[in-house]
Amino acid sequence: MKKAILYIAAVIIGQSCRKEATQFYSGDQGVFFKNGENHAEVDFGAIREFVNDTIVWVPIYLFGNNLNQPSSYLLQTDESSTAVAGRDYILPASYIFKPNLAQDSVSIHMLRSPAIHDDTLTIVLHLIPNTNFPGIWQDGEDQEYATIFKITTSDHIDKPDDWDHIADYYGIYSDKKLRLIISLENQEYTVENILNILKFQADAKSYKLKKYLKEQQAAGTPVYEVNGMLMQAGPKAPDRY
Question: Along the chain (241 residues), what's the average pLDDT of each consecutive run of 10 residues?
Fold first, then answer.
């Protein structure tokens, strides 16, 4: 199984920064998410079709005393999450903050499930104080950001800006149609790559789409759009090429 890796940029907080922040928390030490780094988006629609999963690295910061040994912290999924564990994502078996670090990270294994074809789903991760990290962030508006990290995941291919210029060849746009066109090429194309090909080889590629749709209909297995309409190529798609 091939996978892509998504990294969220994280800036390590220096000792001086954490000293300035001591007025914003209670307790000897704790872990928190940094405001501005507490959200990630996973768009499988922009990733090649053969990629079935990806990793999101979530940055977690330490406030208070430095650690001299690996220490476990508590991370839970909030009930407001719409993504389903095991189907749309996999969490680590344990959460350990390594010693002598001001910033660590946790990996969330995202899965390209059929459930995200039609809906954008959300994972809401919630940091919970425990015996190793009893401290609580208390900086007003940032208090919510400090404990919550949201990941949205989808597998949509939004209508490309250039589609209207080739609609006469390929017909009305749909996510399903573009995925079919890509699959007919039997190549590892990205959306950007396939659009360039569709524009410059409009006759050949629209003919291939039209031919395939006719063959499926003749075989008694017509291809329908998500809305139930019969999928069709555009009026300029040639009957032979």
Answer: 47 37 63 89 81 94 92 96 97 96 96 91 95 79 76 90 94 92 79 85 96 96 94 95 79
**231: nearest Cα among 215, 239, 240, 241:** 215
Helical packing angle, 202-218 and 163-170, nearest 10°: 50
Domains and CATH numbers, the chain: 3-154 (2.60.40.2030), 157-241 (no CATH)
Prediction pTM value: 0.69
- What distance in Å separates the CA atoms of residue 205 and residue 223, rounded to the nearest whole number? 17
